[in-house]
Amino acid sequence: MNDAVHPDEVERLMVALWGPGAASSAAGHAESCDACAEDVDFHRRLREAMQRLAAAEVPPRAMAPALAAAEPPVPQPDAGWIQAVALPLCAGVRSAAAAEMQFVCDVPGLRVNVVLHPAGRAGRFALSGQALRDDSTAAEGAGVTLYVDRVAAAVATTDSFGEFSFGAHAGSRFGLGLVTAEERALVEILPGAGAS
C-alpha cells in the first residue's frame, strides 16, 4: 500500500471516466493504492450502470403514474371566477360546427370569446378562442391557462391576433385564467352541474 497523499476526488473521477491517461498522477497512485483502486473501479462501474440506464427506454405507461404522483394537481378555489355567457353560434365564427358552443365574457380590460369543440364523447372538448383589449386590439402575448374541474390542465400564449387554442380535455367544469401585463382574470366557461 502506498502512503502518499491521495489524489482528490476529481482526479479519481477523471481516471474512472476517461482512463489512466486523463490524470496520470492519479492513475499511478490508483495502481499502488487499494483504496483508490476500489474508488476508481466503483466510479467506472457507476458510469457503466448510468450509461445502461440512460439507454433503456421506459414505456410511457410506466411513467404516467410517476409523473402524476410527482406533482399532484391543485384545485383552484371558487372565489373570483367570472361567469361567461353562452351565445347561439352564428355565422362569422370560423370553423364552427352545429354542436359547438360559444361563450363570451367581458372582464376588466379584456373581452374573451371561446368556442368549445366536442371531441368524441360527452364532456370532452377542445377549446379555441380570442382575447381582445377594450379598444378591440388583440391581447397578443397574454398567458392563458385552461382549468378543467378547477385544476390547471394546460397553458398557452395568445398569438398576434389574440387567439389561443387547447387540445381535447374531459371534465364537467371548464375555465380560463388570463394574464396580461395589465390584467388578471378567471373566467368560468362551462360551470358544470351544481356549480354556483
Short descriptors:
196 residues; alpha+beta; 5-stranded mixed β-sheet; 5-stranded antiparallel β-sheet; 4 helices; 27% helix; elongated
Can you characterise this structure?
The mean pLDDT is 75. A hairpin with a 2-residue loop joins strand 3 and strand 4. The chain starts with 8 loop residues before the first helix and ends in a 6-residue tail after the last strand. Helix 1 crosses helix 3 and helix 2 packs across helix 3. With 196 residues, it is α+β, with helices and mostly antiparallel strands. It is elongated, with a radius of gyration of 29 Å. It contains four helices and ten strands.
| Number of beta strands | 10
Query: Largest beta sheet, briefly?
Result: 5 strands, mixed
Radius of gyration: 29 Å
**Helix run count:** 4
Please state the average pLDDT score: 75
Low-confidence stretches: none
Shape: elongated
Strand order, largest beta sheet: 1-10-9-6-7
**C-alpha end-to-end distance:** 78 Å
Strand content: 25-35%
The H/E string reads HHHHEEEEEEEEEE
Helix content: 25-40%
Structural class: alpha+beta
Topology:
Blueprint: H1 9-18, H2 24-32, H3 34-55, H4 60-70, E1 81-83, E2 85-87, E3 101-107, E4 110-118, E5 124-133, E6 143-148, E7 151-157, E8 163-170, E9 174-179, E10 184-190
Parallel strand pairs: 1-10
Antiparallel strand pairs: 2-3, 3-4, 4-5, 5-8, 6-7, 6-9, 9-10
Question: What's a concise summary of this model?
Answer:
The chain has 196 residues and is an alpha+beta fold.
